Amino acid sequence: MVLNRYKDIKISDYTYNLPDERIAKYPLTERDKSKLLVRQNGTITQDIFENCANYLPEETQLVFNNTRVIHARLFFYKETGAKIEIFCLEPVEPADYQVAFQETEEVTWKCMVGNSKKWKEGFLSQTFKIDGQVIELTAAKIGQEGNSFHIRFVWNGGVHFSEIIEHIGQLPIPPYLNRDTEESDEESYQTVYAKIDGSVAAPTAGLHFTDPVIAQLADKNITTNEITLHVGAGTFQPVKSETIEGHTMHHEQVIIPIDILRSFVENPKNIIAVGTTSVRSLESLYWIGLQLEEQRFNPFHPEVKQWEPYENDAKISIEKALQNIIYFLVENNEKAIRFSTQIIILPGYDFKLISGMFTNFHQPQSTLLLLISAFLGNKWKEVYDYALANDFRFLSYGDSNLYLK
Fold first, then answer.
1. Is the pTM above the cut of 0.90?
2. Of the residues 126, 144, 170, which one is the last residue of a structural domain?
3. Which of 8, 44, 252, 347 is deepest in the core (most CB within 10 A)?
4. Same domain, 57 and 86
5. Is 278 within a domain?
6. Amino acid 175: pLDDT
7. Is residue 175 included in any domain, yes or no?
8. Given this model, what pLDDT does residue 81 score?
9. According to the model, what pLDDT value does residue 273 have?
10. Both 346 and 369 in a single domain?
């Protein structure tokens, strides 16, 4: 069975030696001065990121993920002095991110809880001031989902939940940096085009872009489109199983405006994704369009499941898939397609929409490295060997790559 060929992929085949000193613990002072590795037509070259426009053909459509990282880490203390960390992953009630952030009394979020053994019952609370007003916030466990919990937050004062977490929460920088969040991370761990609150990790390929670089892209007639995928903590989840079959991908929420779908139909060439989050979002579109074609699309819970690309034949063109989505949106008077994706992109996957990507260097034995291998084939090893031999900096605050077909 074809599906088994993918599920039997051994994660041990996708590793490399990454010395700790090669992990960038901090970003460069000027983000567009990072190194840029370019792989095109089988050739690897290097440059500085601020020159990236030189490598993109005219009429390229760059696709940015405009999600913004929230202050997702909240800390409470029990009367015993025990410190409890509540890490907000995604809203449950209300389930829509923007609605949840605008709530003024109560929300329920799916959360990870640190030191949960010390919090078996009762509620946690803390008191603080926002603009001089005293706010009391309480947190209570109301359910469990796998290793995560459903936490109900209740507070007074009529302030938005977004204001509360911005005031008392911490920005969740990647765990492999092995350091506390610092004030400088507030700016450096957000893209310059971040707009829509919701991520618990930055779409780090976009961290290299600056306003001058974006201006250079516009001068070259390169379009910049913005979509939204709220990055989940699962992006850092290591693959612990021997084969990929044993790994469960995380769900992430995607929003893509209808005008961008139309631009893809009008100009399907040279669509370059900025980051693996954009890759997963754009490639998920094909499978949403196929669901609509085969009348198995669920408008109440639209999603692309983990194994969907490997369980279904690609029976229609990408243009037809996009047109199906556009037709659905027009019929329902919607301005954007909203769905959840759990897609895993594995070696052997046939890319439907993108012809290239910007990305950073990823952890050994990660699903992100599998995605890179899907695009580059076994040549990913040459890329990473080159980077290690030429003093490139790795992971979230590290240097950039541009891969083109």
1. yes
2. 170
3. 252
4. no
5. yes
6. 87
7. no
8. 87
9. 98
10. yes
- Do 148 and 133 lie in one domain? The reply is yes
Please provide the average confidence, as pLDDT, over all residues in the chain. 95
Residue 307 lies in a domain: yes
Per-residue pLDDT at 250: 86
Same domain, 361 and 318: yes
- pLDDT of residue 1 exceeding 50, the answer is no
Query: Mind listing the pLDDT tens digit for each residue in 306-329?
Result: 999 999 999 999 999 999 999 999
Q: Which of 116, 142, 170 is the last residue of a domain?
A: 170
Give the dihedral of Cα atoms 275, 280, 283, 286; nearest 10 deg.
-150
Count up the domains in the chain and report the number: 2
Q: Mark whether 27 and 152 lie in a shared domain.
A: no
Mean pLDDT, residues 249-278 = 95
Q: What is the 3-state secondary structure (H, E, C) of the chain?
A: CHHHHHHCCEHHHCCCCCCHHHECCCCCCCHHHCEEEEEECCEEEEEEHHHHHHHCCCCCEEEEECEEECCCEEEEECCCCCEEEEEEEEEEECCCHHHHHHCCCEEEEEEEEECHHHCCCCEEEEEEEECCEEEEEEEEEEEEECCEEEEEEEECCCCCHHHHHHHHCECCCCHHHCCCCCCCHHHHCCCCCCCEEEECCCCHHHHHCCHHHHHHHHHCCCEEEEEEECCCHHHHCCCCCCEHHHCCCCCEEEEEEHHHHHHHHHCCCCEEEECHHHHHHHHHHHHHHHHHHCCCCCCCCCEECCCHHHHCCCCCCHHHHHHHHHHHHHHCCCCEEEEEECCCCCCCCCCCCCCEEEEECCCCCCHHHHHHHHHHHHHHHHHHHHHHHCCCCECCCCCEEEEEC
Range of the domain at 161: 72-170
Q: For tokens 């499941």, what's the residue?
A: 305
Residue 96 lies in a domain: yes
Tell whether 62 and 76 lie within a shared domain. no
Structure confidence at residue 113 (pLDDT): 95
CATH of the domain at 55: 3.40.1780.10
Q: What is the pLDDT of residues 11-32, one digit of tens each?
A: 999 999 999 999 999 999 999 9
Q: Do residue 189 and residue 316 come from a single domain?
A: yes
Query: What tens digit of pLDDT does each residue of 98-115 get?
Result: 999 999 999 999 999 998
Indicate if 327 and 295 belong to the same structural domain. yes
